[in-house]
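queue> holo job accepted ((2Z)-2-iminopentanedioic acid)
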Amino acid sequence: MKNAYLQKVYNEVLERDPDAPELHQTIREFLDSLEGIVDKHPEWEENGILERFVEPDRVIIFRVTWVDDAGQVQVNRGYRVQYNSAIGPYKGGIRFHPSVNLSVMKFLAFEMILKNGLTTLPIGGGKGGSDFDPHGKSEGEIMRFCQAFITELYRHIGQFTDGPAGDIGVGSREIGYMFGQMKRITNQFDAATLTGKHLSYGGSLVRTEATGYGICYFTDEVLRNICHTSFEGKTVVITGSGNVATYCAEKAMQLGGKVVAMSDSNGYVYDPDGIKLDVIKDIKQKRRARIKVYADEVPGAKYTEGCRKIWDIPCDVAIPCATQNEVDVEEAKKIIAGGAVCVTEGANMPCTLEAVELFQKAGIPVSPAKAANAGGVSTSALEMSQNSLRLSWTFEEVDQRLHNIMRGIFKAAYDASVEVGQPGNLVVGANVASFLKIADAMLHQGIV
Ligand code: NDP
Ligand code: 2IT
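queue> job finished
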């Protein structure tokens, strides 16, 4: 890093958390984005703004004890990282996946601060989860785990403190079990604390679709304003087949794109005629089965074991929607060779720093996750608004608000990229636009 203050802050992060590669990656990208403006803001160093910004307010780590179907006692580790509340209560999802550790939790929570800063809604940054693996667990085991998890976490959250939602391995089923247990413990119907609830007890229309739809609304802005084209007739490859990937595929198709491949953690399916989304939904949502089944049931489709080769398939629009660092230099080279016109990060930090650099050198616009996938958390905040108002808006009303928010985020990131002299660099633009707002809020609130 050229700037001494940025380098000092980064060195402090490396010293304090030496074994946190994902955290280093997100903070590195963020600090690099400030190179062009940090000199214009001496008040940041005077007030220790960056030193405070990179260190979480608090981290909660707890034991989760539950009993499996065989009567065996099982122990997992639970986390909640409450990173920054300058512009609102901590807000961010809960992830259940065996790869969850403190570095992953911190990187996800850090991303949430800047993502939430872009939404224009009053939400700070946090994230939680557990190394619990939901694969192969029975319905009863999932329920008992969720109850055990929230029995510890409930005392640390609340609509004015911290509001969890879903992420990998956590959807409306798990949120429901957590909500029920929290209500039992507190004797309060505190609807606005957990978002992603089922519609029957305070969930918002469009929340299920919101992250994926928002990704396409954002990509549509990039295609129109930067690439001077549209989704119409574009070949799209999407990784994952969970909540984000499924509704991203749905909206991409509605906008005229042709989605030819999707994946899960075992492998991918290629359907040259275009993926049949009703089949994917049936396999992944209803049957909770593997994506491999798609190729058994749809003539002409082909299944390949292993995820990474999916990028051998040429596409115009590449949207990784599974997990962090799934696209590294190898995959990036294939995406470029396949003729992609733009890359959108659907998952959180799916591209390595080196992959993003390659795309940018090739002149391919990259939409960073914190901007492109902010539709999910935005709609979570709209769910909180409806809960506070004790009413619910129609699908059209929420979708319209979501669309406007995504357009606004594109404009904010694009305008900031122009202001720092890197027009079209949405990675830098998103970081700058969000941080200017959060730093301002921190300055107004004094040294705390
Ligand atoms: P889901 O659990 O619904 O789906 C995850 C999908 O990704 C599944 O198809 C899963 O495969 C696959 N996957 C998970 N881990 C890996 C891995 N290590 N390698 C390959 N494939 C993997 O999660 P979401 O769709 O909710 O989340 C996907 C991404 O989007 C995450 O990065 C999440 O943080 C991000 N995100 C989610 C939001 C939300 O509202 N849910 C909002 C914004 C971002 P399998 O079925 O085999 O497990
Ligand atoms: O990464 C994310 O933005 C989420 N998991 C959604 C968070 C939320 O509070 O809706």
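queue> The chain has three domains: 4-53, 58-189, 209-372.
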